[in-house]
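Render this sequence as a predicted structure.
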Amino acid sequence: MRLIIILLVNLLLGTFHTAWADDVVKNDAPILSTAEDSPRAELLLYAMSLIGTSYKLGGQSFDTGMDCSGFVRHVYSVATGILLPHNALAISRASMKIHRAELQLGDLVFFNTMKRTFSHVGIYLGDNRFVHASSSKSESVMVSDMGERYWAKRFNGARRILQSVARDDS
């Protein structure tokens, strides 16, 4: 199964990245094209390859299912080698606070979904979208829009794990 996922990610790197980059350009989001952006590209492509993975409370494996923090922890560990805690609040404390306007691809977005702050986490994809393991709707890893009423009302903040990359906008 892991071999299939690795092959899928490699295939996506060759085909999906170009189409996805075109979509990102239309939305005035950062472009993943330089070598310095490679960790962000790998992170997002791996996260997207897990769409459809089952939700499981406390889970952190694509074989058995994942919850939101298990998903983020797994993606960051595999794609970047960074080991994060398995708890949305603990992840928020282990990362750098940023303003919503500063969001970059691969940053973390947090929500209050259990009547407590930082109870849900996802990975920012650009264009106001994020990928996360959801216990509602499809009970799987999925992409959602932060502008949807449910998420907009519950947004708690954003955090950064990967350092930003200076871009030459000239």
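Summary. Residues 2-160 form a domain with the endopeptidase fold (from Nostoc punctiforme) fold (CATH 3.90.1720.10). The longest helix spans residues 2-14.
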